[in-house]
Write a structure and sequence with these properties.
Structural class: alpha+beta
Largest sheet: 7 strands, mixed
Number of helices: 24
Distance between the termini: 44 Å
Strand order of the largest sheet: 3-4-8-7-6-11-14
Length: 749
Amino acid sequence: MAPSKQWMQLVDNRLDEIYLIGVQKFLNYAFQKNGEEDEIRCPCVKCYNTTLGTRKTVETHLLVHGIIRNYTFWYHHGERLGEPLSESEHEDEDEDAIEECESEDEVEELLRDLYPNLDGGTTHTGCDDFLEEEPNVEARKFYSLLKDFECPLYKNSKASKLSTLIKLLHIKSMGHWSNASFTMLLKMLKEELLPDGANLPNSYYEAKKIIQELGLSYNKIDACTNDCMLYWKDDSLLDSCKVCGATRWKINTHSGETRNKKGKKIASKSLRYFPLKPRLQRLFMSTKTSTLMTWHKDKRVDDGIMRHPADSMACKSFDELHPSFAVEPRNVRLGLASDGFQPFRNSKTSHSIWPVVLIRYNLPPWLCMKQENFILSMLIPGPSGPGDAIDTYLQPLIEELKELWEVGIETYDASTKQNFKLHASLLWTINDFPAYGNLSGWSTKGKLACPCCNKDTSSIRLTKGKKQCFMGHRRYLSKNHKWRSEKGSFDGTVEKRPPPKVCSGIEIFNQVQDLEGLQLSKDPKIRKNISHENRMDNWNKKSIFFELPYWMCLLLRHNLDVMHIEKNICDNIMGTIMNVKGKTKDTINTRLDLQEMNIRPELHPIQKGEKIEVPKACYTLSPEDKHKLCLFLKNLKVPDGFSSNISQCVNLKDHKISGLKSHDCHVLLQHLLPLALRGMLSKEVCEPLVELSIFFIVLGSKELRIENLEHIEAQIPITLCKLEKLLKLRLLDRFNIGGCIPWSDGYIF
């Protein structure tokens, strides 16, 4: 009989006693099935059942590297279909079935946490060492409302009114139903399908009121159409913007009236803000979620390997600076992400809505980045992005974060049956490069576009290309490196400068002090233009995040999303090696710039009468090789879930690859390109591309070791210098500016 396999799910916590016992049971089973053989296949994540090893070797690998999590049918180790399970396995399955049954209705779970005898049984809380307390006022109100709404849907019904309503509203949201169609469904269910006296609301309006009473709604805050101000607090009754004078209300273009047919005024712009404090309190009102909120302290293994943001230097430094915050593991650590998206199906419609999402880093790594565990903080209205004026909309969130840091909020913990003071902190933001500029205040355009290099950014203006070019990668090489003195291979100069110094939070704060109180607005009459030439920097504003008392002390304030960077680099590489018109960085203007700089004479354009001939570069594929590459991607077969169907993006006739999504570029750059280009391009071209691929593989791995990061940190300037020698200009554009390693102020770790 095969032993229990539940221990395999503890691969991220390999010091757990259950995992250690499971390894021994697996080895006993495998060698018993293997007969007289002294070696078996090693199922660790490194060997992946491809190499043989002795019992001691396999045991060491399973403890050091961990077992393959999804290898649940041990066919390499003698297990056969239909083989009976051990008694412990049956017990585990029964427990899982019970848990699944109990978790089918999460509302019932919440009620069981407060009323253990709700279903006639008793629930052991595991808190014998604690003195139980009565829930605070907010928690009592929430539980009371839950109990009131937890009446049966109809007589003898197993489903409750609230559970049914939540599921219906979820389906409405996922299915994009209109409010009218949802009301029609409720009426049909109540009048035709369900028994008389069914306890359902009559309309969507009534259903929404029930959810609002549970504190799961949002606050609607009107905003100036030019993003100058919010109509809240003392300004909530104003009819026009006190900054630019624009009216608060929509005006009928025909009648000039501000009221609609029902006599109601409609705001021209409204922010949907979801209060943070009640949502954080809800996390601790269920034993299921409250116990997970201390994982980063109780279950995390501190063995020098980074698997979770709490393992990073940024988090450890924060805890050292604020011990009073760190001493309570239930205090919430948050990350903030924001970007614009087009909400309408018709992509031709120009509209951009900006959601602001908060991520909880108290949870284990396999849960904290799941969509259902994100907290939607606000929806910033369109039709255009807020730009630098995003600070106007962030005011309610920053105010709540300040209060949560300084005062906290009384919260009831269902797992310990105690009230405690909950605090929260914002550790960093995550965004793409343009949004980085909006949130940080540093303009990501122009000659000083790099926020890491700050005033010491290395860039030149291309005369023909009319763009900024960021090279300067040799600054990051060792002082005695031979490439520092090679003029012809690079930009025609000797590089003697050291790498730029990374500014601390206090230095950044001092740089933006004079911009405090700057009015942010899209109205050209109100907006003050900042002269970057006079300031000698690229600051557009003082970020609202500096209002947080701890913001300037953070080691890492803003992160760049690695998927965006991978897509931009992959698109640039593919466009250049395939020589795609409009996508390649090797244009006639680039060649003319090379000629003007008097470098790489073999690539200079040749004038032949009225025509200009462009010599073929070593990094451009021939038509035959283009066909081979397209054919390789067209016929590629990968495991389910590995990537989307990349073959649909390949046009064999025109030798074009288009329509790649971010994840497609991620797979191409890390796994497919190094394999596909082998033998098509010379070693001097393939080598830096393979090194770039390895860089992102290491950076994007689930487990990060300090020595691996130090290695790729030392290697990436060499790789960029190789690309600079080959392509000379603009391959990586501003997405790897001035040779900056992307995690300088851009990655969690």
